[in-house]
Amino acid sequence: MTAQVIPTIQELRGALASIRSAGRTIGLVPTMGALHAGHGRLIETARRETGCVVVSIFVNPIQFDRSDDYERYPRPLSIDVEFCSARGVDFVFAPSAKEMYPDTERAFVEVAGVSEHLCGQFRPGHFRGVATVVLKLLNIVQPDRAYFGEKDAQQLAVIRRMVSDLNVPVAIVEVPTVRDADGLALSSRNQHLSPEERRIAPMLSLALKTARDLISGGETRPAAIKREALRILEEYSEVRVEYLEIVGAEDMQPTGEITGPVRVAGAIWIGKTRLIDNVLCAPGGAHPTQTARG
Ligand code: PAF
């Protein structure tokens, strides 16, 4: 069945009112489009767990810190709608920027603490833009459950914190990262990589995996772990490391000696493309999902 594409907030609210009064649960998968197998996993999980699946496709201008990144962000809407239809999505909410932000004066959501380090340090205003649009989407759709990928672990931490602090009645569901066979985490930005850049891109996941192996082997000193991981990336002159950091699995604050679950997270530039990735790690080989929220 073809997913119904809805461009306005009013129409979507109307359609969802009858779903809700029929007693069906609603799952929201917020996206910026250019859908790939990672989004596919989010949609499939929502499909399994809820009675009605809404995918939002909106390239959110207020979360981009560079206008060239916003302009060149891929927008293949009709292909995305086919992708959603093939996976049993009920509604694709695809609003214009004017529909979402009719005025220039507006309220924003700031989530302190978890937003500060990693991407927050290098992309000013990014998480404020993400938190604001996600809260708007949650208010528009009022889903029972909303689905986000582990690849954007800091985004997920920001959203969890916002939902908890602002008492938003929704369950946030984390879905594991989907990777290509060589380890590269799927991302809509991967399509900007040249064949040569694509060959080098999996080095980020290799560096993170190296860090994870050291941590599960008993290494507890962040500096020593980062040194080994960075050594892998430094072999490639095409790679510019923006950050490679070890943070608390929940609070996203840089750690001292590792004594509990942590995330190793990295952002690199290859040419004009920025890639991020992260892995959850537990010291001394304990399974991280036993000690941190999966
Ligand atoms: O992860 C994304 O695609 C975006 O940051 C999100 C959550 C859809 C908000 O625009």
Fold and architecture overview:
With 294 residues, the chain is of the alpha/beta class. The chain has 2 domains: 4-175, HUPs (Rossmann fold, 3-Layer(aba) Sandwich); 188-284, Pantoate--beta-alanine Ligase, Chain: A,domain 2 (2-Layer Sandwich). Helices cover 39% and strands 19% of the residues. The protein has 12 helices and 9 strands. It has helices at residues 9-21, 37-49, 67-72, 77-86, 97-100, 119-122, 126-141, 153-165, 195-200, 203-216, 222-234, 288-291, and strands at 4-6, 26-31, 52-57, 91-93, 145-149, 171-175, 239-248, 262-270, 273-281. It has a 6-stranded parallel β-sheet with strand order 1-4-3-2-5-6, with helices on both faces. A 3-stranded antiparallel β-sheet has the order 7-8-9, covered by helices on one side. Helix 2 links the parallel strand 2 (26-31) and strand 3 (52-57). Helix 7 packs across helix 8 (153-165) and helix 10 (203-216) runs antiparallel to helix 11 (222-234). It is globular and about 55 Å long. The two termini are 33 Å apart. The model is unreliable at 290-294 (pLDDT under 50). Bound molecules: pantoate. Pantoate is lined by residues 30-32, 60, 63, 130, 133-134, 152, 155.
Question: Topology, pairings included?
Answer:
Elements: E1 4-6, H1 9-21, E2 26-31, H2 37-49, E3 52-57, H3 67-72, H4 77-86, E4 91-93, H5 97-100, H6 119-122, H7 126-141, E5 145-149, H8 153-165, E6 171-175, H9 195-200, H10 203-216, H11 222-234, E7 239-248, E8 262-270, E9 273-281, H12 288-291
Parallel strand pairs: 1-4, 2-3, 2-5, 3-4, 5-6
Antiparallel strand pairs: 7-8, 8-9
Helix pairs in contact: 7-8, 10-11
The structure holds pantoate (PAF).
